[in-house]
Write a structure and sequence with these properties.
The complex is a heterodimer of chains A (765) and B (187). Chain A has 765 residues and is an alpha+beta fold. Chain A is built from 20 helices and 29 strands. In chain A, strands 3-7-1-14-11-12-13 form a seven-stranded mixed sheet, sandwiched between helices. The N terminus of chain A is likely disordered. Helices cover 28% and strands 13% of the residues of chain B. Chain B starts with a strand and ends in a 30-residue tail after the last helix. The C terminus of chain B is likely disordered. Classes of the chains: A alpha+beta (765), B alpha+beta (187). Chains A and B meet through helix 1, strand 27 and helix 18 of A and helix 2, helix 3, helix 4 and helix 5 of B.
């Protein structure tokens, strides 16, 4: 047996090989969805609503259809009408009627950019011209842009059929759901507190900001089969959602994963994929649709803006005794914000005996939100980690010590679910305390240092894998997990580890939906954890069969064959020459035929993730611009299979968190029209905005996983906004209660504080 | 429809003659007329840099230039960065430093980095961050990209590997050290 258990002693795991798909990606050869072309291919383009909220009185398409080169013009009348029904879709469930109405508006448009019609033509320019010839008559309605307005009595209603349990079946509402989470008695808890801090936070809607716009090529065949090439985080979810939206059986749809240019949760749903098939079916040609950046920002992805009230109490020796939180998240035009996850993460890093959390999912005239890296948790942590910082200050305790006093550990109850198993939150705090960054001194005017932590559940879900032994002793590993950040390398490394072969003798493949068993989305930080588990099991299955063949060759029993790092040898030496996989592979035909190892998992026992960030900032006292001087993130990564790509996740998440903290936001005007529809105005961090991002990987293996893997992708986005807010406080004395902490907002607070200080000084004189 | 125009250019060392509509961007021409899909479209407004190519020695966003403007130009795209099957040092260093995750921005970064090193073979980290500030990456936080370019520059200087650019050298970038967002320990 390969002596590979948690801990040291690995040959491949923990090394940093070059990724297998790397050469294609540095030479421009890798094919992303927009790079696919097919003979006779047409180009599709979507007509989008110029109104944030309006009734569609009529759509006239005849002029557009008459334009030479136009092959089809379609609207929601060409899609089946679906009943309200929930369908699982990766990290979030979707209502199919809402999904369909988001793909092509039905009777009503609910946000600026809502698709109204779609055209297929022989060139993209003709398709664009055709859009201008479609005549849509709208009746504009009042717009509802904030959760505050949407929740007011008498608010304009977005979805006439929307109801919630509390208000009953007769009351129209914009509140899609109210969730409550309780433990202990918060009133009693606050009575025992020496210090109580209560704050209200507002965070702006932000976008995942993947560089690659959404794309799809649909090919409908005369035999009723459809093939979709697209950049998605989940081929199987595309298949099931397209099946539902189009009324085509799942088995007649094949989804081929193109390379994907970033997703961060935003490519776990469908927009263009069903339209590509609809148009292909209507025209008999392959049809390609690719969004512009403006379409991406107006009509895909974003995650919720939010209003969060957070009240926490602590005793003077620094023990948290009660937390009461109220969260309302913008769902966008249809229900389904990540407010539930926000509520279930907001105080979970801490062991607090009394909690009461209320969470509201609210529809507004903004694009339907989609998952974004630890969905809902970043907004929540901005609130709770700022309040924790303020409480630590009131108690006169260092903020890291304060967190250590209250940190969740093995056995601590979660807000929902069973108590934590072994987790590494304390270890991330200790790692920061021991870091060169923490031990360095920060001096100088207008500078401050802040810390904050983050928690994310991670998910398990289903994965499939096969491991094929080839006749030359090389191996291919096939999974259904789209590789968005280097997971192919990790899967190959697991196989190389188990079979004792060179990493370059393993080829990782991401297969289409016809060629691999069901596999859920690349999301929820699950790919290394769950698909890695399936790959481990499949490699073990292959190894078991290989040992049987060796035993057959040696005329022994399988348990008389030992295996160590690629070499088969007899358990008790009796003159048989040891054998490697390379020597055995050509003989497989003579010992029973090819070998395929296979495994599927529905992974349980997922290991939750924690990260702690330390950040130094300098605030320009004249402009309010925040410069990040130094940033270090410590994260419990379970077991780093390919440490370079684990660091990459930590750095990437941190960078997104910094963008969310300082610059990124959706600007809507009073008519609900998005004013920043390009990447000049939707301001994501550039490499001039960021310092080197220092990483500390803490390895606390997930119990029960054969390799101890813990999902690493999502949690690093959670701490930055609060950590930076806490650093800004140290630098300026101003507590920022809103995101982004862009110069105008911060400057306003700095000036307010200066005015108050001046008034006090004048009074003292 | 406007009639197509014949455009002649030198692309990746080869003379190319192509037909394009006057309204087509160079990016569209490269991708759709020449099937060179290595240059990527991220924004079409020159903000993301995913479509960066080198035109007459300068890094440009090919989405901001018309195809017809390429008449007579010498153009290097990502497809022309490697020397046959031998990777350019920058490509090799991007792989070694794990500088890409999804990879969609990688061609643009490589072309911007090449243009920088062609003009300034001894860049500081500040020079590098300044030269790459027009390229957006959403996956990596830039750290490993910057490290790869630093390493590539050093490798090319010591002669352990050489790029094969023929781009004329121009003056070094005027990036100053205060553009460097580097954490400093203050005593």
């Amino acid at each position: 047996m390969a002596a590979t258990t948690n801990g040291n002693g690995y040959h491949v795991i923990g090394t940093r090989p070059i990724r297998h798909d790397g050469v294609d990606k540095v030479t421009g050869r890798a094919r992303y969805g927009a790079d696919y072309t097919f003979p006779g291919m047409l180009f599709g383009k979507v007509l989008r609503s110029p109104h944030a909220h309006a009734l569609i009185k009529s759509i006239k398409t005849d002029k557009a259809a008459a334009l030479p080169g136009v092959k089809a013009v379609m609207t929601s009348a060409d899609l089946p009408q679906l009943a309200d029904k929930m369908e699982a879709a990766g990290e979030q469930a979707v209502n199919l009627a809402h999904l369909s109405a988001n793909i092509l508006a039905r009777g009503k448009v609910l946000y600026d950019g809502h698709p109204v019609a779609v055209v297929a033509a022989t060139s993209i320019h003709i398709a664009e011209e055709a859009l201008r010839l479609i005549e849509v008559e709208y009746e504009a309605l009042p717009v509802v842009m904030s959760v505050e307005d949407a929740m007011k009595p008498g608010a304009t209603i977005l979805l006439p059929t929307l109801r919630n349990k509390e208000d009953g079946p007769d009351k129209q509402t914009n509140v899609a759901a109210h969730m409550q989470f309780k433990r202990g008695d918060v009133a009693e808890g606050f009575k025992s507190a020496d210090f109580i801090v209560e704050r209200e936070f507002n965070t702006a809607m932000v976008h995942q900001g993947y560089i690659e716009p959404h794309n799809a090529v649909g090919i409908y065949s005369a035999d009723g089969h459809a093939t979709i090439y697209c950049s998605t985080q989940g081929t199987f979810v595309v298949r099931s959602l397209c099946s539902a939206v189009l009324g085509i059986p799942e088995g007649k749809i094949k989804v081929v994963p193109a390379e994907i240019g970033g997703g961060f949760g935003g490519k776990t749903v469908v927009y263009l994929e069903p339209l590509s098939v609809l148009l292909s079916k209507a025209t008999g040609h392959p049809v390609k649709l690719v969004m512009t950046r403006g379409e991406v920002l107006r009509a895909t992805g974003p995650t919720s803006g939010s209003t969060i009230r957070c009240k926490m109490g602590a005793t003077k020796d620094g023990k948290l005794v009660a937390a009461e939180c109220w969260l309302a998240y913008e769902a966008g035009a249809f229900p389904g914000s990540p407010v539930g996850a926000g509520a279930m993460t907001i105080v979970t890093p801490y062991n607090i005996p009394n909690i009461l959390i209320d969470a509201y999912d609210v529809v507004v005239n903004r694009p339907k939100t989609a998952a974004y890296r630890a969905p809902g948790a970043t907004n929540a942590a901005m609130a709770s980690e700022t309040v924790v910082d303020e409480l630590a200050e009131k108690c006169g305790i260092d903020p890291i010590e304060f967190r250590l006093k209250n940190a969740s550990a093995e056995g601590t109850p979660q807000t929902v679910g069973p108590p934590f198993k072994r987790i590494g939150f304390v270890e991330t705090l200790e790692a920061i305390k021991n870091s060169p960054h923490y031990k360095s001194k920060l001096t100088g005017p207008n500078r401050g240092r802040g810390v904050a932590s983050g928690f994310w559940f991670n998910v398990g879900l289903q994965s499939s894998a096969t491991v094929n032994i080839h006749t030359d002793g090389t191996v291919s590993v096939v999974t259904g997990s789209v590789d968005i950040g280097g997971t192919r390398a990790a899967q190959a490394m697991i196989v190389a580890e188990v079979l004792g072969v060179d990493i370059n003798d393993v080829r990782p493949v991401v297969a289409d939906t016809d060629s691999i068993g069901h596999t859920d989305v690349t999301g929820g930080s699950r790919t290394a954890f769950a698909t890695g588990w399936a790959v481990w099991d499949a490699a073990q299955d292959a190894l078991r069969q290989l040992k049987e063949r060796v035993a057959k060759t040696w005329e022994k029993k399988p348990d008389e064959v030992a295996f160590d790092n690629g070499r088969f040898s007899p358990v008790s030496g009796n003159g048989v020459k040891p054998m490697t996989l390379k020597e055995l592979a050509p003989r497989l035909a003579r010992t029973g035929g090819p070998i395929i190892g296979r495994a599927t998992v529905n992974a349980r026992g997922v290991g939750p993730a924690f990260a702690t960030m330390l950040v130094d900032v300098e605030v320009d006292p004249d402009t309010g611009k925040v410069k990040i001087l130094r940033a270090t993130v410590a994260q419990d990564v379970g077991k780093a299979i390919h440490p370079a790509y684990v660091e990459g996740q930590m750095q990437g998440g941190t960078a997104q968190g910094i963008g969310w903290a300082l610059n990124e936001e959706y600007f809507y005007d009073d008519k609900g029209i998005l004013r920043n529809t390009g990447l000049l105005d939707y301001r994501m961090p550039t490499c001039l905005d960021l310092p080197a991002l220092e990483t500390i990987m803490v390895e606390v293996p997930t119990p029960g996983h054969p390799l101890g893997i813990r999902g690493v992708g999502e949690v690093p986005i959670v701490p930055p906004p609060a950590a930076i807010a806490n650093a800004i406080y140290q630098a300026t004395g101003v507590r920022m209660l809103e995101l982004p902490m862009a110069p105008p907002r911060l400057m306003k607070q700095i000036l307010k504080k200066r005015a108050a200080t001046d008034t006090q000084a004048a009074a003292a004189d | 429809m406007v009639k197509k125009v014949i455009v002649e250019a030198m692309i990746n060392g080869d003379p190319v003659e192509l037909l394009c509509e006057p309204r087509q961007s160079l990016l569209e021409v490269l991708r759709d007329e020449l099937d060179m899909t290595g240059s990527k479209e991220g924004c079409l407004t020159g903000d993301c840099g995913a479509c960066t190519v080198i035109v007459n020695g300068r890094a440009v966003c090919s989405c901001l230039m018309l195809g017809v403007e390429a008449e007579g130009a010498t153009i290097t795209t990502i497809e022309g960065l490697a020397d046959g099957a031998k990777l350019h040092v920058l490509q090799q260093k991007f792989l070694e430093h794990a500088s890409l995750q999804c990879g969609i921005c990688t061609p643009g970064f490589l072309m911007s980095a090449k243009a920088l090193l062609d003009h300034n073979p001894k860049p500081t980290e500040a020079d590098i961050r300044y030269a790459l500030a027009g390229n957006l990456c959403r996956c990596t936080g830039y750290d490993k990209i910057v490290k790869a370019v630093v390493d590539a520059a050093q490798t090319m200087l010591t002669g352990a590997g050489s790029g094969h650019g023929t781009v004329p050298r121009q003056s070094a970038s005027e990036a100053t050290s205060d553009m460097l967002g580097k954490g400093e320990e203050v005593k």
